[in-house]
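pinging the channel bc i need a second pair of eyes. not urgent but kinda urgent?? the chain im working w is below, pasted from the shared doc
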Amino acid sequence: MIAQFNILDSLKSKLNNYRPLPSDIVKNLQEELILRWTFNSNAIEGNTLSLQETKVVLEGITVGGKTIREHFEAINHKEAILYVESLVTDDKPLSEWEIKSIHALVLKKIDDTNAGRYRNINVLISGATHRPPDYLSVPDKMADFIRWYEGEAQSLHPIQRAARVHIDFVGIHPFSDGNGRTSRLLMNLELMKSGFPPVVITVKNRLEYYQALDTAHTTQNYVPFTQLVCTAVEESFEPYWFALGVTQAS
């Protein structure tokens, strides 16, 4: 794993040599990323909009035969990405307030009653062995999560820390809905704060993704999920190399 981290660190250093990137490249990469990230993150949770349908929804066009909720899921996710990018730009520390703010955007106009509020019910994760904690313990669990983040987590490699943020957050499952999307936003917040490109966990890898998460939650073996994130990080550099007209080996 350390060897992989070293490879990814070298890719980040290589990309840093091209920064600041030309504004037109930045704009193009951002638009493409928002589309792929939004489509895949929502599709993992069951949204039936295709990639092209997601694109037109983000452009303000209504797609026939799709639910209002699916439209809001796309629109909200884009807003949440932009908010996460602003947190990176402003170098805001991770806090419960920021987590709740991200979640509030994810569920805006979908479930305003629960948006940005910890759950007051017990929940099960469909298909998973892991059972999230009782809702009464969620506030304490989230406070512990932030203390861990501010302390022990800072000694981890940024990719390892980002993976653990995702694992531990979704293990608590602090909200009644929207935990998956929020956890992926938090993971990418960590990656971007450390200078790595955000990753897209694709819907085609949904089974591997869920299995790796459940393994982490039930056995405390974080390697499969961290490995999955490492692969996604490496893939996240590819659009940059293409846009810059360079090869990974150069």
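so The chain has one domain: 2-244. and The mean pLDDT is 96. — does that match what u expected or am i reading it wrong
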